[in-house]
Amino acid sequence: MTSKLPHLETSIFTLISQQAQAAGAINLSQGFPDFPVDPLLVEMHQEVLHQNCHQYTPMSGLPKLLDQLADTIQRHYGRKLQPATELLVTAGATQGLFATLTALVHQGDEVVLFDPAYDCYETPIILCGAKPIHIPLAHDFAPDWELIYRKISPKTKWMVINNPHNPSGYVWTAADFTELLALAEKHPQLHFLFDEVYEFITFNKPHLSGHQLEQLQNRLVVVSSFGKSLHITGWKIGYVAAAASLMAEIKKVHQFMVFSVNSLGQHTLSAYLDQKPLGSAAALYQPKRDLFRAGLQDTGWELLSCEGSYFQVASYQAFSAEPDRAFCTRLIEEAGVACIPLSVFYEDRLDLKRVRFCFAKTDQTLQAAIEKLQQWSNLNLKNT
After folding, report:
1. Best CA proximity match to 158, nearest among 95, 223, 93, 73
2. Is residue 262 helix, strand or coil?
3. Domain boundaries, the chain
4. Which of 105, 193, 202, 329 would be 308's cystine partner, CB 3.0–4.6 Å?
5. C-alpha triplet 251, 235, 76: angle, nearest 5°
6. Residues 84-100: tens digit of each pLDDT
């Protein structure tokens, strides 16, 4: 049988995690927390287990949870949505992204992806018979608007915007949104898919959301994640917001992918949100970011700016000129710390000698990783 996706291989996240486990290394590669979730959430889940909520929820999601999500979006972004027709609970943000692209992208369409790009966007585009158009971000991971204008054509129907950005932590500015509105006015065929799973993890500057672009409400979809916002990645529950005309198409695909999402999780989240509304997690993650950055100061690592998410990009050029995938393998073996090579996020595998660390870990884990990296760095700086 001929493969529909012959270019795909085992995810780098799987491969690095396997190497880390085999070597007994500290895993700062994959983006998941290693600290306990809020005890109240566990308590709520225990209560829900004994209630009569073990059957399918409605396809769009638990009605009360949809109402709470509408309230959350209005409170944070000022956008009023109709819960029944403009919101959808999904089996994680990835499923929401996949359903959206599968439903709304047509054969022959062009879809803009900004490199370095998270790896889940391209596959549904290809399966739709559409063409991913990879546009590299600037050296500081800001959008290169001059290049973007050159790359857009009448066939370009969608643009995927990941903000805050994984892997870099870049957060879009008001100037970026102004440029986006000008682009949208020039290209009325263009629609926008906002991946905002790290919306509540920003530092020192506010998160600007697609929800706030009133002029584009009928041309955009916004995907969010309980997993990232509440540190429960294994629950795989996210949600999608879109105008009713777009959402009707997304639901057509969603119903045949999963129909409905885990009922226990939805009931638990609804009970939890009654007591603790969704909000900023910066107070949790900023000290972790600062701890990790302070630990690697003056060690030879070049730390790039991190304005959001729970990832830190670093350059290792002071230590080596080897390819980043080989460097990550060597760091696991020699330092006992795992990270992700940034080249895998680029279509052309551009290798800028940069890696991504995840600091969504306990302070104890971070401190142990810092000590290992400091020791390795001191040794390798002396040997260069």
Report:
1. 223
2. coil
3. 12-30+280-379, 39-275
4. 202
5. 70
6. 999 999 999 999 999 99
